[in-house]
Amino acid sequence: MTKEEELFQRHLLDLADSAWQRNIAMFTDFLNLNEQNIYHDILPSLHYVQCKAYGGYEYAERQMIAFIPDALSLDTCTFPIACLKVSPLKRKFSEELNHRDYLGSLMNLGIDRSKTGDIVLQEREAYLFCHEKIAEYLSKELTRIRHTSVNCQLCSDQDIHYQPKLQELTGTVASVRLDSLLALAFNASRSSLMGLIEGGKTFVNGRLITSNGYHPKENDVISVRGYGRFRYCGVLTSTKKGRYLVNIQRYV
Questions:
Q1: Distances 138 to 8, 56, 81, 111 between C-alpha atoms, Å
Q2: pLDDT, tens digit, for every residue of 188-203?
Q3: Which domains are present in the chain?
Q4: What's the DSSP call for residue 205?
Q5: C-alpha–C-alpha distance, residues 22 and 72, integer Å
Q6: Which residues, 6+ apart, have CB-to-CB distance to 3 below 8 Å?
Q7: For residue 188, what is the DSSP state?
């Protein structure tokens, strides 16, 4: 571990200790995949508190972690996450904006990346998940993305109409190994993708996996830096030649 990673690990342990000692829920900021992996590494040592991960919607990539004492109910835990809907003021003259455009505008406002979660694109609109403490500031100050003037409005859970765009893929694999599923998801050979796993770029449910022979479980979400992510849905059937017909859903 680097010095920075050691400090982050200590920060997580301090939050868990505070939750236990003060008998209140404690929350991290939004964690990236590397930070989530550090959390998973220390999870066995956090037996004295309840832990829950959430990013504002199901299968969010960037997530907060809640540390909750046993005296409190895990189900009633409310994460300090707000959702903002970002829409062009004049849709007719709006640009095609991508994830980098939205993120760049946030950075220009001086927003720390750890205070923001996923940015979910929906045609010419986007849902931006952020820490509730900065939601009001962003709703006032985020007025332009590139050359497009936008309206940034706080929305409730009931107002979020988001369904991820998924590409359904089926194919046969010799065994349900991580390298085989990557080859199917990204339409490439297993050998060409081995470096992604061994090089520390592949995460399963936020946990770093460096073994090509790792066997994902049904409904695991697999993220690969620079390539995207997909959900392994399971085995549909087996063939007469002993291969497995599997189903995955790739986020597009």
A1: 27, 17, 13, 9
A2: 998 898 899 999 999 9
A3: 3-68 (3.30.1370.160), 81-159 (3.30.70.330), 166-251 (3.10.290.10)
A4: T
A5: 12
A6: none
A7: S
